[in-house]
Amino acid sequence: MGIEAICRWGEEILACRDYLSAKEQFGDWQREVKSALDGSGLPESRKREIGVKLHFVENEFSVEDSKRELDRTIRGTVEALGGLAQRPEESFPGPMAELIIQKILRNFYLYVRTMYQAEVHKKASIGKELLEQIQIGNEYDVQRMLLAIIRPVFPAARAEVVSDNGYSGMRCDLYIDEYDLAIEVKCTRKNMTEKMLTEQLGADGFLYDYHTIYMLIYDKEGIVENPAAFENMLKREYDRDGRQVRAFVIEPATL
């Protein structure tokens, strides 16, 4: 069974409201996912990551909690598998992909302005008052918006999930393994200084084992005095430093 068919099957199980029936179907679906992964040719590390998402723990004391956990497991796995279904003709050459992503990062503010600040058509069901309720509070908000922009162009883009137990906890990083590329997302806080931000990003630039690392800094609190100099300070070249690093400081957009 192909990846697309497996994802559709997962969506069908999600639509099943009866927990016992959904759980029974999940067992068969889980085996099919594992079989597909075994023959996928993916790196073992990526297989393990998807395997973690596929892990389901039933709460024997609560059917409601068990169904909620089952749905979470299926959704996470389907999301991880979705990018694998991308057809070869939909891919970009590496340099072109990098240019596209750089363009998205550099113009992130245009998404914010267009989506949340531009005038709303009088016939639109999503009104201005509803859009104005959405505020960027931290880097998790920025990450969610950025992933929503990037994924239609690069379906394999993913947000990493890590924690001590391996099953929950979100990191503010986006990854596109096809291009060996990671994106670090930061949103400045009131108690953060430019020095603190520099130290965090400086460490990140050499921590991740990726060919290309992009850093999107949403300077919500305006702590970066000279954005151009700040970006240049973090810049690294593959030939000289073993990886390519680029930073993009985005001035805060009032939401």
What layout of secondary structure does this protein have?
Blueprint: H1 3-15, H2 19-38, H3 44-53, H4 63-82, H5 94-106, H6 108-117, H7 128-131, H8 139-150, E1 158-161, E2 170-176, E3 181-187, H9 194-207, E4 212-218, H10 227-234, H11 238-241, E5 244-250
Parallel strand pairs: 3-4, 4-5
Antiparallel strand pairs: 1-2, 2-3
Helix pairs in contact: 1-2, 1-4, 2-4
What do these coordinates show?
This protein has helices spanning 3-15, 19-38, 44-53, 63-82, 94-106, 108-117, 128-131, 139-150, 194-207, 227-234, 238-241, and strands spanning 158-161, 170-176, 181-187, 212-218, 244-250. By secondary structure, it is of the alpha/beta class. The chain folds into two domains: 3-85, no CATH class; 91-250, no CATH class. It has a five-stranded mixed beta sheet with strand order 1-2-3-4-5, with helices on both faces. Helix 1 (3-15) runs antiparallel to helix 2 (19-38), helix 1 packs antiparallel against helix 4 (63-82) and helix 2 packs parallel to helix 4 (63-82). The radius of gyration is 20 Å and the shape is globular. The protein starts with a helix and ends in a 5-residue tail after the last strand.
Question: What fraction strand?
Answer: 5-15%
Task: Let me know the largest β-sheet.
Answer: 5 strands, mixed
Strand order of the largest sheet: 1-2-3-4-5
Task: Provide the residue-averaged pLDDT.
Answer: 85
Distance between the termini: 45 Å
How many beta-strand segments?
A: 5
Low-confidence stretches: 161-170
Radius of gyration: 20 Å
Shape: globular
Order of helices and strands: HHHHHHHHEEEHEHHE
Helix content: 40-55%
Please work out how many helical segments DSSP would assign.
11
The tally of structural domains comes to 2
SS content category: alpha/beta
